[in-house]
Amino acid sequence: MSAETHAQGAVARRDLAVRAAVEQGLVGGADDAPPLVCLLDTAGIRASAAALTDAFAAALPPGTPVLHAFAVKACPLVPVLRLLADAGIGCEVAGPGELALARAAGVEPERTVLDSPAKTAAELREALALGVAVNADNLQELERLDALVGAGPARSPIGVRINPQTGAGAIGALSTATATSKFGIALRDPGARARLVRAYLDRPWLTRLHVHSGSQGVPLALIAEGVRDLHALAEEINAAAGRRQVDTLDIGGGLPVNFASDEPSPTYAQYVGALREAVPALFDGGYGLVTEFGRSLLAKHGLVLARVEYTKSTGARPIALTHAGVQLATRTVYAPAQWPLRILPYDAKGAPKDGDPVAQDVAGPACFAGDLLATARELPPLAPGDLIGVPDTGAYFFTAHYGYNSLPRPAVHGFTVTPEGRVRFAEVRPAQSLAEIVSESGGPLRDALL
Ligand SMILES: *Cc1c(COP(=O)(O)O)cnc(C)c1O
User: Fold this and answer.
1) What does the pLDDT look like over 386-399, one tens digit per residue?
2) What does residue 185 show for φ and ψ, rounded to 5 degrees?
3) Atom of ligand 1 nearest to the CA of 161
4) How confident is the model over 213-254, as pLDDT tens digits?
5) How far apart are CA 318 and CA 359, in angstroms?
6) By the 8 A CB rule, do 331 and 338 touch?
7) Atom number, ligand 1, closest to the C-alpha of residue 293
8) Which of 38, 75, 91, 367 is catalytic?
9) Cα(176) to centroid of ligand 1, in Å?
10) Which residues have C-beta within 8 Å of that of residue 59, sequence separation ≥ 6?
11) How far is the CA of 429 from the centre of ligand 1 (A)?
12) From the alpha carbon of 256, which atom of ligand 1 is closest?
């Protein structure tokens, strides 16, 4: 199926799901319905997992070992990890919480990769005991691993993360491959390359190399440059070792996502094309591959649905006060120019709303003036009881809840559409209750400071 056909299918499913969410009482314009819900398109997630798997499989010789590990931080929900595991995708974890989620989802240690820049000795011990793959971030971590690995062969594949220092993308805070990024061992610093080769020759159990140099705002060609440098370093290490000591390259994730339309772009096939151009040898089957995509697997498949509670006009600007704000779209609220989100207007019944567009601000519920999902956005005039849909929020948005104003985490439901057009919802995360908010905020310790 073409990317365009995929997008049409996704839009049709989304509109059916919005109407069904209202009909089935998951969200609504009336006061007795929840004002906010988050939806995940199960078929869309499966389609992205298949597109990823197919794009690499089509380019690699049959039998090349490949592990696609989902970056859990993008959507840390156990049923989602389970769905992805069912589609053949493992987990990339960055700490004990994410590792616990991967294990709860039943993802095997052999299909799990641990990548945090600040792993404790206890976390490293646990990973090695389980057989989880580990990528060391720095030389001090390697020394810690020396003590843990000892003389015996490690069950876990172990690698080192490098920073290719290939340069920044459009978003500074998300650029991992600048000259001074905090991640990995810098490859272009004076003497660094020789030290790295030495570190491998001294440690026969180091069999992998890792880079994660892409993210939102990073062009494909720049990501591919980092992978090219990774491959060249592996060849250099193996030549110095006189054997294929490095047998697997972990090329990270970082495929950007199109937030401007429903088109999934760039596609995994386009990324594989950019990699083939920059590093043809990556696809000769000489190395096993690990990937760690997060945003590109989930972002397009998440939708926030929020009620418009009130509308008003201030300084001649219409403002819609909704229930979706900084708690769900933290990056958009604090860095709106870098993280623009679309706003889809629906009426109280969940039907797409038309009308002559008027520039409106779309505000969230939090108590600070900047809590806006959009400013001066051209939309049909919104009214109390309408709903707004915020698409492309399946990664790093509602799944990375921000507890400002003690705003509760809304429920997340996955949905599927039957061939007859019926929508079935499955709860993935219950709404956080007020009792939970009180309890997580020290409620049971009420008298602790008296
Ligand atoms: C965040 C992260 C990823 C996933 O990045 P996306 O941009 O979501 O694909 C992969 N690997 C590492 C090490 C990461 O930190």
Assistant:
1) 999 999 999 999 99
2) -95, 125
3) 13
4) 888 888 999 999 999 999 999 999 999 999 999 999 999 999
5) 7
6) yes
7) 9
8) 367
9) 10
10) 272, 275, 276, 283
11) 23
12) 7
Span 111-167, pLDDT tens digits: 999 999 999 999 999 999 999 999 999 999 999 999 999 755 668 999 999 999 887
Encode burial over 322-356: b for 16+ CB neighbours within 10 A, e otherwise: bbbbbbbbbbbbeebeebebbbbbbbbebeebeee
Q: Are strands 372-379 and 358-363 parallel, antiparallel or unpaired?
A: antiparallel
Whether residue 38 lies in the annotated active site: no
Residue 209 is encoded by which pair of tokens?
């190399």
Strand (E) or helix (H) holding 49: helix 42-59
Phi, psi of 230 (to 5 degrees): -65, -45
Q: Is 210 in the pocket of ligand 1 (CB under 6 A)?
A: no
In single-letter form, the type of residue at position 153 comes to P
136-143: long-range contacts, CB 8 A cutoff, minimum separation 24: 136/160, 136/161, 137/161, 137/183, 137/184, 137/185, 138/184, 138/185, 139/185, 139/195, 139/199, 142/199, 142/203
Tell me, using a 6 A CB cutoff, whether residue 73 lines ligand 1.
yes
Helix spans in 248-294 (H): 268-278
